[in-house]
Design goal:
The chain is an alpha/beta fold and 388 residues long. The protein has 14 helices and twelve strands.
Length: 388
């Protein structure tokens, strides 16, 4: 019988008998592990993927977390690393070589764009960035040397989606590796692997951790794909997470369902009012009535996370700044997924820093709704809009 969501979040993979029956998972804060005989050491060294030998490869605390994340994404296995960017880089690099071609959606996370457009280009890998909202755009971009499809559905600024099942079918039909960044939805609201995607990557910093105190990434997929990545890129580059951070992530997972649903509930209450507000030009949210892809979003997402963007109706960046500077209960910061509500204005970014070939509107502010009182957050947004 498959474990329930509650069992995955709070019990799966946690061994208590070996750790004095402690209720909280044990932190095995050791860099290496000793053996009673040379034969036992030799055997462990031959299986660093599944046996404690050196924590860069296998650590008991991290192994508990790997099992939970794989189960959440309905995958066979997972790797957990020091950042979401590291997870993307390991997953992408593990299946490419010089001369290969990648198809990627045109508004990925900025460091994903830089990986594909700058770093891998130095080693002879080419990338075509496409709109991706229609499956035909993937076929039009395919070349004889195409090896990979990378999608982000939805992306984390303007929230365009791709038909995940259709992209997965396209990739399989053409023998391509398919990868999705599922950080926005989390496995609670969307499971791309069940729709046919090969590898699911996360910035575990976001909803999975949920406390704004860990930077981490995850790669989830089949045992074959994960073991291949482990044996080459993973062990060579050494991006492993610390046992202490793995423990913090497991602590965060215990409340994932509560936190993500609370944030989503608040968004569902506030967004309809923002859609009608005279100072809001447009609301970007997958389940918004203003989203032409709403039907697709509702088809492949169980719920919609509590992060969205609004385009402020103003003639100058100063209007956007007045809105942001007037917020009393939103912190001006990047990221999302924690307790605290956040606002991230596009105009707050340095004009000299641009990693995407499809810039977002200058008057856009991304809003993340934390788990504070919904009425408090609603009133704060409304009073700040009056300052525009």
């Amino acid at each position: 019988m498959e474990p329930t969501l509650s069992e995955i979040l709070s019990q799966l993979g946690e061994t208590r008998a070996d750790y004095y029956n402690a209720v909280s998972p044990a932190i095995v804060q050791s860099s290496n592990f000793a053996f009673p005989t040379v034969a036992a050491m030799r055997e462990a060294l031959g299986d660093e993927f599944g046996t404690p030998f050196y924590t860069r490869g296998f650590n008991p605390t991290v192994a508990m977390l790997r099992q939970k994340l794989a189960a959440l994404e309905a995958c066979e296995d997972a790797l957990v690393c020091g950042s979401g960017s590291a997870a993307v880089a390991i997953a992408v690099m593990g299946f490419l070589q010089a001369g290969d071609h990648v198809i990627c959606v045109q508004k990925p996370y900025s460091w994903t764009y830089k990986l594909l457009n700058t770093l891998l280009r130095r080693f002879g890998v080419e990338t075509s960035f496409i709109d991706g909202r229609e499956i035909e755009s993937f076929e039009a971009a395919r070349r004889s040397n195409t090896k990979m499809v990378f999608i982000e559905s939805p992306n984390s600024m303007t929230f365009e989606l791709q038909d995940i099942a259709a992209v997965a079918a396209f990739a399989k039909a053409n023998k391509l590796i398919s990868i999705i960044d599922n950080s926005y939805s989390s496995p609670l609201f969307q499971q791309p692997h069940t729709l046919g995607i090969d590898l699911v990557v996360h910035s575990a910093t976001k909803f999975l951790n949920g406390h704004s105190d860990v930077v981490a990434g995850a790669i989830c997929g089949s045992k074959a794909h994960i073991s291949k990545l482990f044996a080459q890129e993973w062990m060579t580059l050494g991006p492993s997470i610390s046992p202490n951070d793995a423990w913090l992530l497991m602590r965060g997972l215990r409340t994932l369902e509560l936190r993500a649903n609370r944030s989503a509930d608040t968004a569902a209450l506030i967004i309809p009012e923002l859609e009608q507000h005279p100072k809001v030009e447009h609301v970007y949210w997958p389940f918004s009535s203003q989203n032409p892809q709403r039907t697709l979003a509702q088809k492949q997402m169980k719920r919609c996370a509590g992060m969205f963007s609004i385009a402020i109706k103003t003639d100058s960046p100063e209007g956007v700044e007045r809105f942001c500077d007037s917020l009393r209960h939103f912190l001006l910061a990047c990221s999302w997924g924690g307790y605290e509500s956040l606002a991230f204005p596009v105009c707050g970014q340095s004009q000299s820093v641009s990693y995407t070939n499809s810039p977002v509107p200058w008057n856009l502010v991304r809003i993340y709704l934390g788990i504070e009182d919904p009425a408090l957050l609603r009133d704060d947004l409304m009073q700040a809009l009056e300052k525009v």
